[in-house]
Amino acid sequence: MKAWRDREEFHARVREWAGKLDVPATAIYVRPMRRKWASCSTAGTLSFNDELLGMARELGDYVIVHELLHFAVPNHGKLWKSLMRAHLGDYEKSESRLRKEADLGRRISTVV
Prior knowledge:
about 10% strand; 4 helices
């Protein structure tokens, strides 16, 4: 799968997923992040690591959905896992690929 064309395409994908998941994303940022792939605030602000732009869209979708689901489920418990599976199928494969990317020299210590 190919990488994102640019930030605008990534932003559009975040908005698309936010609409599907009925999440009010008030602001979307793509910026350098040292230790995370993404973060979200209770005010609806989403920040994504700019390194995602050079990765497969499938991995971007994983991080986008992962972060958006935290607006409804703040942890990684059974409900969160069920929702991930409902929206992305075998999301664990993407999670594993993302971990491998991190292990291949990325500075990121946590998945999200």
